[in-house]
Amino acid sequence: MTDGIPPTRSPGRHRHRPRPRLHAAAAAAAAWAAGAALLAAPPASAAAGCSIDYTVNQWNNGFTAEVAITNLGDPIDGWTLEWEFADGQNVTGSWNGEATQSGSRVRVDDASYNAAIPSGGTVEFGFQATHTGTNGAPRAFTLNGTVCDGSTGDGDGDGDGDDTSGRQVEALGRGPVSVRSGDGNLVSWRMLATDPGGVAFNVYRGGTRVNPEPLTGATSYLDSPAPSGADYTVRPVVDGQEQEASPSALRFGRGYLDVPLQRPAGGSTPDGSYSYSANDAGVGDLDGDGAYEIVLKWQPSNAKDNSQSGYTGSTIVDAYELDGTRLWRVDLGRNIRAGAHYTQFSVYDLDGDGAAEVAMKTADGTVDGRGEVIGDAGADHRDDSGYILSGPEYLTVFEGADGSELSTVDYRPSRGNVGDWGDDYGNRVDRFLAGVAYLDGERPSLIMARGYYTRSVLVAWDWRDGRLTERWTFDSDEAGSAWAGQGNHQLSIADADGDGRDEVVYGAMAVDDDGSGLWNTGYGHGDALHVGDFLPERGGLEVFDIQERTGGAAGAHLDDAATGETLWRKPTADGQEGPGRGVAADVWAGNPGAEFWAAGGGISGLFDGQGNNIGRTPSSTNFVAWWDGDPVRELLDGTHIDSYGPEGDERLLTGEGVASNNGTKSTPALSGDILGDWREEVVWRTEDSSALRIYSTPHPTSVRMPTLMHDTQYRVAMAWQNTAYNQPPHPSYFIGDGMDAAPVPDVHTS
């Protein structure tokens, strides 16, 4: 299926929507493709502006092209030009430049003797290529990471000097909330990474300003006394001038906000009936208005672990505004089995147009948000045990605003021979993971993966200009036997090696940004994974992982994220299976940096950054959340939040009328910094699944930092949080006792 459309569907239904924020290419072109992997070395310097001129000489299925790069910015010493092709072009030779390509993505590096391009200067190179399609032009070119659209200085094509360095992120609003706190209201709001330095804020109750002077500290204000129903807005103050007011703050009059849900009707399968409960959730700005919407997975009561036979009801995915307005519903149909390991949905603005898409695995009979069927509506690929081991598998990108199908391609990797994944009955073949990563250091790519007990295959996709294109594939069968069986029940995304581009930490192994193996510890499969800057006095990031195997020297271990080198490890007790839970976070101010602990495998105690046992094991080994006023994180488990102490935990919140998800995992629907200041909200379902109940902190704070959602490691963690065995998000920098001032991420929104 080279056109990316399943054969059971008409090409006329492959829809592209308008993309208002795309950069225009500066010239018409043609393209090439060579089988080599893209080189990973960063360019010597960034370009401030550039233009491209292509001259093409074409014949039958071949062509040559002369390419001229004009530097419109500061002098460059070393250059890399990149673009993507869509029509099957393939390189057969190049001159005055070194060309490589992975899939449709092309990279050309200077030939050393033409590395320098002065301001206003031009260098030329050329290539010979073949093509199998219409030989269409690439839509955009980048020189050392800058879009070559003929503009100067800011790279966004409008010449206004806007900063478009760093990574592209959402253009979020202030997200203000008003939470009842004593006899007053704690009003909090986002400080954005894109705010000017020194931004201050004024808080208004109705038309009256409540703060005597502009607020230059924490982005929260306790207005006391005040009525619980008061209306609040926030105004930034820049260079002494008030800016436009935010929307009215959401009111958490009882400490929480209910988002009403429309619970699907239950149904029946050949072996029984089922009902639905709200399950995992994600957030994204689906309509481009600067506010988050919620995407929710409904799970049937007969959902199964892969190891269990039996039929399941279909998985349903909804999208809601925070006032309970349902935007759309996608029914994945009977050919997608229901359970924690089958449907991993990613909510993210994958193409940078200002509105999020939703991507997930689909199959024959999936119904999109407009009622259109994907594939064969009448197909039933279930076997007598309820497993689905035959029939086509798809990957679909859905429109965030209305749930309509935008593009559907074959899911990769295909299941192939079921036994190649570790068993013959359908357990290990259908273990799926998903995430989002900034593989080029600038724009997000989609990661879809299959398998981790034996064979592991990860595929990176780019969603650009209404088209899914494969960036690379990592297959443990091709990488070598050492890479088999190193995956976890979840993944994490981070710039593990500090080169500005993201890696996929897959458990006991990491895959580099170019799809090659970065490292593996050889410790095997595990159930929990944390990646972050846990030891602020040590350079780089760390990985805390636990292993499921019986016995072994590394039941729990801390590793260097760049190399996989083990910093310390704790053995599993003889004859016991390894820990089933493990957490890394700074939960106690009495120890510098983060603490680490695990549950099971005979491993007990609270460990410091050197692996020393420093005290009592916390009461839970599940989620964590920043909840009270200090930067030390709290314990989140079941339907409550506790503060850790050496002698015992202190209860800070017990959710009212709510339930946790995923059995003994006891996870919330979602937890993260989705509203207000940098502290984290917790989203639980109500006991009857009639609503999602969002709790936000009532505690004042003196800590000021940008929204965590503009730190891309944290933001992509919110995208993968719903994947398989849910894990809490971690930012790229240390937050905890004694922390330095939080950095302002290098990001832009257009």
Question: Which descriptors apply to this entry?
Answer:
single chain; mainly beta; five-stranded antiparallel sheet; 58 strands; RGI_lyase; Cellulose binding domain-containing protein; CBM2_carb-bd_dom_sf; signal
Summarize the structure in words:
- Residues 1-20, 151-179 are annotated as: Disordered.
- This is Cellulose binding domain-containing protein.
- Keywords: Signal.
- It comes from Streptomonospora wellingtoniae.
- With 750 residues, the protein is mainly beta.
- Helices cover 2% and strands 37% of the residues.
- It has a 5-stranded antiparallel beta sheet with strand order 6-7-4-10-11, with no helix packed on it. Strands 21, 54, 55, 56 and 57 form a 5-stranded antiparallel beta sheet that branches. A 4-stranded antiparallel beta sheet has the order 1-2-9-5, with no helix packed on it.
- The longest helix has 9 residues, at 712-720.
- Mean pLDDT is 91; it is low at 1-47 and 153-162.
Structure, briefly:
Residues 1-20, 151-179 are annotated as: Disordered. The protein has 750 residues and is mainly β.
The low-pLDDT segments are 1-47, 153-162
User: How much strand content do the residues show?
Assistant: 35-45%
Structural class call reads: mainly beta
Q: What's the count of strands?
A: 58
Shape: globular
Helix content: under 10%
Describe the main β-sheet briefly.
5 strands, antiparallel
Radius of gyration (Å): 26 Å
Distance between the termini: 33 Å
